[in-house]
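Handout, section B. The chain below has 177 residues.
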Amino acid sequence: MFHGALGYAVELGPLAANPADRVQWRAPTAAVSVNPSTIASPAQIRAILAQVVYVRPDLVTFFGCLYYAALRPDEAVALRRGDLILPAHGRGKMILTAACPRTGTAWTSTGRPHEARGLKHRPGGTIRVVPIPPVLVAMLRSHLRESGTAPDGRLFRGARGGMLSESVYGRAWHAAR
């Protein structure tokens, strides 16, 4: 963001060149992207999802998507009925085409805190096909039957029907833990 602001100053004229371009730092690469000791066990996940039922039952499937399909929260927020292939038995699929991160109203072109974008770290227009296990297929079917979708087809919505925000699912997760 700072680099972009300096680039904008170059465009407007106060700076002749972007001084940040001279910085030669690169982020270190990790040998392993996820530490296996930090991943919850299936028993721990079942226990916490059982607690989410008491806090916000409409979010159990949201958290199931994060665990069973390894979705980022902003991908799950953007998930729509049309993105799902849910067979009667066996594994299903999610066809992810967008994410909906919360960036704040000052940083979006719509003036709303969420803005639909492409998938993180992928070229525009890229899709990601995610296989989902039978347990998540069943959770999604149940969620659709009991909660339906928002008018625009989104699976998960906030307390008043709008976009599901990180403050809402964050409070539910912390209360369940």
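Note. The longest strand covers residues 92-96. Compare this with the example in section A.
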